[in-house]
Design goal:
Its main location: membrane. GO terms for molecular function: transmembrane transporter activity. Belongs to the major facilitator superfamily. Proton-dependent oligopeptide transporter (POT/PTR) (TC 2.A.17) family. The chain crosses the membrane at residues 122-142, 162-183, 190-215, 235-256, 277-299, 311-333, 427-449, 469-489, 510-527, 547-567, 579-604, 624-643. The strands form five sheets. The chain has a three-stranded antiparallel beta sheet, with no helix packed on it. A three-stranded antiparallel beta sheet has the order 4-5-6, with no helix packed on it. The longest helix has 55 residues, at 158-212. By secondary structure, the protein is mainly alpha-helical. It folds into four domains: 2-118, no CATH class; 120-335, Up-down Bundle (Growth Hormone, Chain: A), CATH 1.20.1250; 357-419, no CATH class; 429-661, Growth Hormone, Chain: A (Up-down Bundle). The protein has helices at 123-143, 146-153, 158-212, 231-260, 268-302, 305-325, 339-352, 370-375, 415-441, 447-453, 469-496, 504-534, 545-569, 575-604, 622-645, and strands at residues 2-10, 14-25, 28-39, 45-48, 54-57, 69-72, 102-107, 113-118, 380-381, 458-459, 462-463, 652-653.
């Protein structure tokens, strides 16, 4: 879009002018007009580089001259039928438009004219948050008690139940990588979520039917005789579960970035709102988990499995309906091409130039202007000295011009494109540490529940299902969020100088350390439980509360810190993919946990021994398993400290003057 500013009138100290022009939108030309008024200084030039870059130049002969020139480059959604005032406060504006995407302009003391595209008034993000709450109830309603469903309804052994649940949960966090590639490359986040929900809903219906129809599940046990499920019954159940896994994968990969798309990173006000959105998004995950692990689990075990799953199905249907209703107010970001292709281009170009020597000065490497990046909705990245061999992809040679008129991206890449791959390589050790962490964390919904079933399930006069203790863990996370915001941040801010109190890497490190303590507490409890049971006095399930509380502390520090870290460090073209890397670490952690459990069972049952994890835990040594996981967490913590200490943060170039943040 190109606009011309026409002089309208002039007072002693203020200039009012009309902002008008036309531009192509698809195959149509549209006109737009806007009236601005601002205090103006003579002979000044105002320059603004944001997602919507704008240049305003005032001739030195002003006010004698009655011409004012402007160039506006249009990217994304914008409303042009609003009038507002320019003042020193960004919120000084009057909106006469029914559309919500309105420019807010401020004239700062540094002589720059700042255009801020106003995001939605929390309506669009609120729909995303509501979607997450409802989807969380559905997903955790299945996940929280799946081990029990396998063992009590489908009559599987404890080890098989834990393995099947871990594999399914791992798949749920593996499919987001596929969803991220589809969203970033082909469909965009909106359509990926829409189609994924249409897969999610039939899966929930199928799982519900397996609990509702008698011929889709094995008959109840008669004494010690528990008939196994038939092949057809297993097929129906697992088809439903894996439809849920693929549907939730598309939702998980796109929902958080889609909500963040409703804000502008360059707008200070929106950055604060976006930070609040991350916290609220995680809170919605917690709320969904809390409702599922308390209300839904209670319904499943005390009323009906079918009724419990029906509640989750209803939540997915409501989320889908609300998402459709919110379509008119969403800001949609078009896919920016395959991130894997950009990575492959850097690898191919660097291999082709393997014989070239990397220049000592990064300024001689190929890069385009910030304006060209703004046109694509991207930002330039500053050059770093790590992985210097990849810089060969940005070395300019005589053969880089394919036909003399256009560049071959498989021969020459920009510094920003090279830095994108460097970011992925720097994230890799942190990501691997996350895989190990989530393998240990998987005890939360596997061995912790089995341990609870081996204890006295009464607390006072109440009978507590072991899976319902997850509600205590979730409630602890919510309380910790308040304590952290009101107490911990102000205290740590004094010592760290960081407005957030602790950096993202520091918070994640605290979570890694607390996982060591969690497994140690669980091991001590299990040893005490075995001793108490052998004396004929089973321990109350309330003794599990301390390990759930320490686990909640670990989860709180790790999940928010790591989620923000992956999103913040992700290149602009890889937001969905890097967010899915966080989810992928949870997935592979579940698979690794399954491998650990299977390996422990195999190694400890040799020679006819019952092993550490027999069907009757009173004959095993689950405490040895917990001590092993505590040792693994300690090694993981040491490795993480080394990686975090040497990590180089991403630097974004604001303008061509190489101002970075």
């Amino acid at each position: 879009f190109f606009f011309w500013i026409n002089f309208r009138n002039l007072t002693s100290s203020r200039l009012a002018y009309k902002f008008s022009g036309r531009g192509a939108s698809g195959n149509r030309w549209r006109k737009a007009e806007r009236t601005l008024e601002l205090p103006w200084g003579e002979g000044k030039q105002f320059l603004c580089y944001m997602r919507y870059p704008l240049e305003l130049t005032l001739p030195s002969s002003f006010p004698a001259s009655k011409a004012l020139s402007a160039r506006y480059h249009f990217v994304g959604q914008m409303c042009f039928s609003s009038s507002f005032l320019i003042g020193k406060k960004p919120n000084t504006f009057k909106n006469n438009s029914s559309r919500q995407h309105v420019d807010v302009v401020s004239l700062e003391e540094d002589g720059q004219l700042h255009f801020q595209d106003r995001s939605s008034d929390w309506r669009a993000p609120a729909i995303v948050l509501g979607f997450q709450c409802l989807e969380g109830i559905a997903y955790y309603g299945v996940n929280s008690n799946l081990v029990t469903y396998f063992s009590s309804i489908f009559h599987e052994k404890n080890s098989a139940s834990a393995t099947n649940a871990a594999v399914w949960n791992g798949t749920c966090f593996l499919t987001p990588l596929l969803g991220a590639i589809v969203a970033d490359t082909y469909l965009g986040r909106y359509w990926t979520m829409l189609i994924s929900t249409l897969v999610y809903l039939p899966g929930m219906i199928t799982v519900t039917l397996s609990g509702f129809l008698p011929y889709l599940r094995p008959p109840p046990c008669e004494g010690n005789l528990c008939p196994p499920a038939t092949t057809a019954q297993n097929l129906v159940l697992f088809c439903g579960l894996y439809l849920v896994a693929f549907g939730s994968g598309g939702v998980k990969s796109s929902l958080l970035p889609f909500g963040a798309d409703q804000f502008h990173d360059e707008n200070p006000v929106d950055r604060e709102r976006q930070a609040s959105f991350f916290s609220l998004f995680y809170l919605c995950i917690i709320i969904g988990s809390l409702v599922a692990s308390s209300l839904v689990v209670w319904i499943q075990e005390n009323l009906s499995w079918a009724l419990g799953y029906s509640l989750g199905t209803l939540c997915v249907a409501l989320a889908f309906g609300g998402f459709l209703l919110g379509t008119p107010i969403f800001r949609l970001v078009k896919p920016r091409g395959s991130p894997l292709k950009r990575v492959a281009q850097v690898l191919v170009a660097s291999v082709r130039k393997v014989h070239l020597e990397v220049p000592p000065d990064g300024s001689s490497l190929y890069e385009v202007s910030s304006k060209d990046f703004d046109a694509e909705g991207l930002r330039r990245l500053a050059h770093t000295d790590s992985f210097r061999f990849l810089d060969k992809a940005a070395i300019i040679s005589d053969s880089d011009m394919g036909n003399g008129y256009s560049l071959n991206n498989w021969r020459l890449c920009t510094v920003t494109q090279v830095e994108e791959l460097k970011i992925l390589l720097r994230l890799l050790p942190i990501w691997i540490s996350g895989v190990i962490y989530y393998a240990v964390y998987s005890q939360f919904y596997t061995t912790f529940i089995e341990q609870g079933y081996a204890m006295n399930d009464r607390i006072g006069s109440f009978s507590i299902p072991p899976a319902s203790l997850q509600a205590f863990e979730v409630t602890s996370v919510i309380c910790l969020a308040v304590i952290y915001d009101r107490i911990i941040i102000p205290i740590t801010r004094i010592y760290t100088g960081n407005k957030r109190g602790l950096s993202q890497l520091q918070r994640t490190g605290v979570g890694r350390m607390l996982m060591i303590i969690t497994m140690a507490v669980a091991a001590i409890l299990e040893a005490k439980r075995l001793k108490s049971t052998s004396m004929g006095h089973p321990l109350s399930i309330a003794w599990q509360l301390p390990q759930y509380f320490v686990l909640a502390c670990s989860e709180f520090f790790t999940n928010i810190g790591q989620l923000e870290f992956f999103y913040d460090q992700a290149p602009d073209s890889m937001k969905s993919m890097c967010t899915s890397f966080f989810l992928l670490s949870i997935s592979l952690g579940s698979y690794l946990n399954s491998l650990i459990i299977s390996s422990i069972t195999f190694l400890t049952t040799k020679g006819g021994k019952p092993g550490w994890l027999p069907d009757n835990l009173n004959n095993g040594h689950l405490d040895y398993c917990f001590w092993s996981l505590s040792a693994l967490s300690a090694l993981n913590f040491v490795g993480y400290l080394i990686c975090a200490k040497t990590y180089t943060l991403k630097k974004v170039v604001l303008e061509d003057e190489n101002v970075c943040f």
